[in-house]
Write a structure and sequence with these properties.
This protein is mainly α and 253 residues long. The protein is built from 13 helices and no strands. It is elongated.
């Protein structure tokens, strides 16, 4: 099996939430560093949307059945003409292109801030730099995936650090509490500004923008997404594609 087909299978599994742990982390790292892989993932997502929305499978199956029925009518001894094969192939390709175009327009005009958030949000994955025993209380709870415990523990911290604000914000997003996530991420930005630091600065850009989308405030999310999109060196640049940004701009009007 070629590397391309293997990557495509992994992308489909990733898209359908069938990968866990190291496998998911590995493909996410590949997507973040490989523009062609990220582009393929976006194409697969669009294709899946077209299939789900417009019944592409049924239409192609109908064309295939029509083709096979016509071919069966021909004498067995005759060789099937290349013209016939090309005719049906072009018809199927035309249907695919048409439905994909309609799907794109449908997504563009019917997208909502929350739909864009849900279809693009991915939880922040802590890097395995420290063991549970040496991690902070919030970090240890976050690694365990206990979002409620993270938020409860955060409330007992008298002077939260940048990491505390960031992890609490991501826990809030996991629990569909965007207003609390926004509050913590803004506090993180203020803390960096006060101390002249840049802790979690780029991460906060992306997750604050996503939190604004989840909270139905696309106009506040737009400047952050534009900043990320225009900075090729930003670690979240690949997550903010041109098509995604266009939809945010439309919603922000």
């Amino acid at each position: 099996m070629s590397d391309n087909s293997t990557n495509t299978e992994k992308l489909i599994q990733y898209m359908d939430d069938e990968l866990d742990g190291d496998a998911r982390g590995a493909i996410e790292q590949q997507i973040a560093t490989d523009a062609s892989l990220a582009s393929e993932l976006e194409s697969l997502r669009l294709t899946k949307a077209a299939v789900n929305t417009y019944g592409m499978k049924q239409k192609i199956a109908s064309l295939h059945t029509e083709m096979m029925n016509e071919l069966k009518k021909r004498p067995a001894a005759k060789v099937i003409s290349m013209k016939t094969i090309l005719t049906y192939t072009m018809r199927i390709a035309a249907v695919l292109i048409l439905l994909l175009g309609v799907s794109l327009l449908y997504q563009y005009y019917n997208a909502t801030p929350d739909q864009l958030y849900k279809s693009n949000f991915e939880s922040f994955q802590l890097r395995e730099t420290r063991s549970i025993s040496t991690a902070s209380v919030l970090e240890a709870l976050y690694k365990k995936g206990d979002a409620n415990a993270v938020m409860n523990a955060f409330k007992s911290i008298p002077q939260p650090l940048a990491e505390d604000y960031f992890l609490e914000a991501n826990a809030a997003l996991k629990l569909d509490k965007p207003a609390e996530a926004i509050q913590s991420l803004l506090a993180l930005q203020e803390l960096n500004k006060r101390d002249n630091t840049h802790l979690y600065e780029e991460d906060a850009d992306y997750y604050l923008a996503m939190a604004y989308m989840h909270d139905n405030q696309p106009s506040k999310a737009l400047p952050l997404f534009e900043k990320i999109h225009n900075d090729e060196g930003h670690p979240y640049n690949k997550k903010v594609g041109t098509w995604f940004l266009r939809k945010v701009k439309r919603l922000a009007k």
